[in-house]
Design a protein that fits this description.
The protein is mainly alpha-helical. Helix content is about 75%, strand content about 0%. It is built from ten helices and no strands.
Amino acid sequence: MISDHDDIRRLLSASDPTALDLIHERFCGLLHGYALSILGSSHDAEDVMQELFVSIATHRAQVASAANLAGYLVGMARNQALQCLRRRPRREHPLGDAIEVLVAAPGCVNDDDRTRALAAALLSLPLEQREVVALKIDEDRTFAEIGELLGVSINTVASRYRYAMEKLRAQLGAGFGGRDA
């Protein structure tokens, strides 16, 4: 992993286009999933990914000099996703996209009412809590890894996760199930 990051930094510094291939190979799943957790729309997440890679190519020197490459890329993805949210016309969250993602998850029970309730509950969480839940559950990251990616303390991550789980339980009921830290 360290070697991958060093290779990416070296290639970015040399303006070698294969750096973008390595970034895509190594980080695309994380970055796309993260953007999707913020936006709730697979279409918007795809747009953000395209904008993100243009931004990476444009600002390759800054990316190459980042001490925490993964955290820097997640920060860039977050900024792009927030710009996308600001450009969106005022409307409800696109539950259809969120449901599609949830139903596609391995081992997911295909119950439209429960899936719709889960998607609505997840999308109703404040962004800071939703992103922690997505990184913890979807990406199977530890609190320490999430803290490093988001640039916040492990205690902040744990608190955001705990508050999110409390809100989800309150909205969905105790019998809904779920996975804790």
